[in-house]
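User: Could you go from structure to sequence for me? I need the amino acid at each position, not a summary. Structure tokens:
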């Protein structure tokens, strides 16, 4: 058995190599027609039709592109420090990266998902998961800034996340790795039966989007890989793929690939919500960070939360079922009607599609095939809607165009395959260059996809771009799917490894995009709202500089009386009230990044001068014709000097 599996895996790797070469030779003849070039051409000064938010994978960030052009507009810092925008470096945003493990300035971000109203994308917020130190972040799509991060306790490898229900009631986090709950010192070999997997339902406040863990469902110790919400008729349910139902803890590529079928866990969250609202579940001690950025103070605060509500699925009969699904399924995708649940079995020859209606009937008729740790397992045949026969090798993810078609990526055979819901026939296939992971149709996780384009996100690019040393770019590919046949239009490089993406028409976001922060709304405790308010204040060895910027000077621009060993905080307010006029500031020898301050905003960096002298600072963002004159000096005296504290602008310090 094990040997057979090993040879299967070996064969699969050969196939990867084969298909890649095969594709490479095709790619030369794959030169695009001029009509393809026209379809992606967005003339200078024109706007793209869609936003695409592509996860940064191991960069920990989220990048913003236009479709169809593939142009990169912004990298939004989320889980990783970003010196360009001072995120995680300035005093205001450092608390965003606080966790129960302390300051964690990196994560692995996989699945962005946009908020919804009535099953349609509403363009208010976008959520994304941190996979490594389990977290979910919320980005405000009026500022394109990360405004909230919540850590997920009892979790490890927050992978089946962060998908949003159709009225943004919940954003969901499911653990990839099961662990002891609560954590404790125990032998790894005792995994089976003792480790557990938490599925977390995090409520979203409809007005402000604030996140709060409503409950965690403590499930058997499988790996919960991906998930999607029910919608329409299946609204109120959530579906999670599992693998490693073998509950192995070593040599997983073999030991977690033994069972012919793993499960999709179907969770009736409405039922559990009702149970919890009636006082069900138990509060369990926990320790997790909740970090919130306040737009009025332009500052984040981090609060450690000390308990979480956990629910044992056996206490809520009828709330959780297992649907047998071949074989180590990865993607768990629900079609726009909410009827079909696609389990993308990585090691399965066929693609399995479950029927929500049949699932309800099986539950109704109490047709149960067995149980796993007391959770009922339904019969495979009772819930099966159909199979797509041998569509390709290594299915990962499926999206829908809203016109009755599904599109599945195949990692090993490196292609996107289009098939029909209901008849399960394959109608088209197009190669990917190479080894595609996720794909994205704008509005994909909703009742209303915009089935004009699909973006395939590829793991390997090899010969597609100019070489850049051993590390070559990851890449996305854009296909036109408006016709019967898919047409490859464009390759474009991505930041980090693109996993999932989310997209929507630009018109949903553009009109709400903020142009500046109003100075009169600035409640930062160290703001200087005019040049008259600027000052330098000493408090022991700490010095606070209340500084302003406006084209083209700092106030003050000469400071004396700072000493070696001081902690100097520069609190810099940008007095500009015009669109697109940030100023930057940096100080020689500061052990942190520059600041990039938006109009009306205040940001702070810390400088600890170590050397006596007269040291310059300057504006880092080219803001006017006299940007190069936007500079100043700080005089640093010895630690025991008596130089009086003074500051000025436009006059000599006396
Ligand atoms: Cu398939 Cu993390 Cu969604 Cu990558 S995962 S591909
Ligand atoms: Cu301010 Cu350059």
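Assistant: Here is the amino acid at each position, in order:
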């Amino acid at each position: 058995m094990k040997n057979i599996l090993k040879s299967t895996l070996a064969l699969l790797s050969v196939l990867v190599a084969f298909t890649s070469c095969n594709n490479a030779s095709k790619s030369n003849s794959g030169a695009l027609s001029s009509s393809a070039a026209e379809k992606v051409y967005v003339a200078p000064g024109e706007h793209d039709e869609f936003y695409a938010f592509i996860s940064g994978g191991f960069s920990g960030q989220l990048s913003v592109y236009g479709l169809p052009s593939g142009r990169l507009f912004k990298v939004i810092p989320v889980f990783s420090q970003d010196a360009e925008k001072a995120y995680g470096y300035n005093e205001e945003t450092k608390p965003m990266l606080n966790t129960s493990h302390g300051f964690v300035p990196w994560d692995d971000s996989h699945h962005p998902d946009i908020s919804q109203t009535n099953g349609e994308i509403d363009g208010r917020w976008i959520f994304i998961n941190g996979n490594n130190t389990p977290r979910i972040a919320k980005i405000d799509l009026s500022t394109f800034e990360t405004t909230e991060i919540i850590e997920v306790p009892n979790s490890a490898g927050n992978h089946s996340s962060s998908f949003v229900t159709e009225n943004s009631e919940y954003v969901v986090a499911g653990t990839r790795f099961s662990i002891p709950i609560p954590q404790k010192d125990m032998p790894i070999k005792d995994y089976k039966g003792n480790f557990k997997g938490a599925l977390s339902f995090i409520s979203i406040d409809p007005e402000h989007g604030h996140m709060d863990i409503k409950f965690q469902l403590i499930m058997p110790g499988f790996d919960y890989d991906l998930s999607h919400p029910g919608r329409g008729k299946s609204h109120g349910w959530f579906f999670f793929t599992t693998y490693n139902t073998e509950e192995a803890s070593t040599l997983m590529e073999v030991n977690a690939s033994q069972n012919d079928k793993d499960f999709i866990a179907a969770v009736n969250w409405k039922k559990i919500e009702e149970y919890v609202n009636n006082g069900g579940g138990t509060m369990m001690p926990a320790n997790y960070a909740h970090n919130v950025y306040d737009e009025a103070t332009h500052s984040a605060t981090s609060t450690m939360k000390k308990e979480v509500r956990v629910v044992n699925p056996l206490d809520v009969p009828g709330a959780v079922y297992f649907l047998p699904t071949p074989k180590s399924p990865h993607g768990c995708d629900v079609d726009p009607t909410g009827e079909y649940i696609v389990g993308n079995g990585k090691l399965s020859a066929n693609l399995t599609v479950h029927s929500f209606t049949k699932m309800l009937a099986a539950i109704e008729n109490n047709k149960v095939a067995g149980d796993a740790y007391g959770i009922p397992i339904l019969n495979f045949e009772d819930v099966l809607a159909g199979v797509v026969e041998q569509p390709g090798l290594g299915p990962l993810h499926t999206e829908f165009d809203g016109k009755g078609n599904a599109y599945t990526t195949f990692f090993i055979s490196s292609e996107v395959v289009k098939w029909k819901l209901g008849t399960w026939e394959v109608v088209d296939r197009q190669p990917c260059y190479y080894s595609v992971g996720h794909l994205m149709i704008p509005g994909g996780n909703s009742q209303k996809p915009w089935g004009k384009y699909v973006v395939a996100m590829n793991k390997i690019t090899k010969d597609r771009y100019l070489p850049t040393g051993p590390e070559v770019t990851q890449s996305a590919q854009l296909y036109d799917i408006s016709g019967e046949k898919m047409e490859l239009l464009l390759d474009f490089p991505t930041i980090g490894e693109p996993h999932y993406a989310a997209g929507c028409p630009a018109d949903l976001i553009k009109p709400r995009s903020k142009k500046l922060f109003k100075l009169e709304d600035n409640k930062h405790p160290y703001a200087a709202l005019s040049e008259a308010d600027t000052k330098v204040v000493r408090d022991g060895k700490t010095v606070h500089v209340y500084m302003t910027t406006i084209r083209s000077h700092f106030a003050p621009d000469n400071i004396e009386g700072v000493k070696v060993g001081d902690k100097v905080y520069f609190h810099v307010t940008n007095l500009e009230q015009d669109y697109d006029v940030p100023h930057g500031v940096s100080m020689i020898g500061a052990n942190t990044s520059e600041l990039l301050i938006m109009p009306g905003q205040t940001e702070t960096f810390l400088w600890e001068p170590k050397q006596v002298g007269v040291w310059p600072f300057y504006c880092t963002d080219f803001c006017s014709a006299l940007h190069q004159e936007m500079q100043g000096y700080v005089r640093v005296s010895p630690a025991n000097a008596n130089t009086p504290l003074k500051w000025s602008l436009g006059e000599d310090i006396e």
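One structural detail worth keeping in mind: Residues 2-29 form the longest helix (28 residues).
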